Amino acid sequence: MLTSRPVVLSLATFISLIVLLVIRDGRFLALTPLNETPRPKWPSDGYRHDVELVVASTKKEDTSWIQKYLPDWYTHIYVADDPDASLTVPKNKGREAMVYLTHIINHYSDLPPKKENRRIGRILSSGRHVVDVRSSLIFIHASRFAWHNDDPSYDALPTLRSFRISHLQEAGYANLRCVWVIGCPAEIRPVEDEGSANNGVLSTKGVFRQAWRELMMPEEAPVPEVVAVSCCSQFGVTRETIRSRPVGDYVRFRDWLLRTSLEDSLSGRVLEFSWHIIFGKDAVHCPSAQECYCKTFDICDSTCSEGACDGRYTLPPYSTLPDGWPLVDWEHEDRNFTGPLG
Fold it and tell me: pTM here?
């Protein structure tokens, strides 16, 4: 049967559009099924970026700074208190720990792949050229400025930009904090501290021993005598380190979070002081500040004591930064902040 010329031209145009959608710049694009949760997109510069950023956020927090200043990081932003978000959690419980465990469980089999016998070169937003980047995940909170961030302005951005992936690949796990306050050198003594309270309110120290017994297999992981790590649940970890444990372990940890009667402030902090142990470090993980800053952030010329380096971190007077930070301080004095804003 003969087909009219206009019909043929229409078919040709339709097929051409389909081809353009499927093939672009010599690369085939995967077409996501309509019923599948959209995955974060890789940056459009032609490289697969194997540093994944997992962000624990809530609806009220502004995460736009991540895309603006770290556009070449493959990012998963979870919204823990929004059940309709594209990335969320079974229950908003246990603070950032629920997000971290949910991501590990859901992506255990497809974590960023290790690159064997291959050299990969790319430029990070910091301008540094990185070679042989393998599988790395960094778990962070949503706020760019927070009292615990290990930076003179409590700014997460320079911390992330200067974080040395090569060190993480060697270490398997690396904290985003080097300063010892708060968490080192001996934050929790589980046996001695059991049942302790602050002004009648149960503390993390007081519940840690029992929580550890519920979280871990006691015969495989006896309760440590001392637990110490610089706070506050922001760290990098490699795919190989995560997968050194079976996925069932992470399911068990999350089930504990879902079931426990502890307040979020306690259950979340129990995990905060357990991540380093879960990922294979000693129960007391307090490298000297000088060693940590040099290896983790390439800051090697500071004058340091065992637990701090000059000009790096000062414990703020309050856990809430003042309005106008980082431009002004608590006294509304100009701080001469020179980092990017806006």
Answer: 0.80
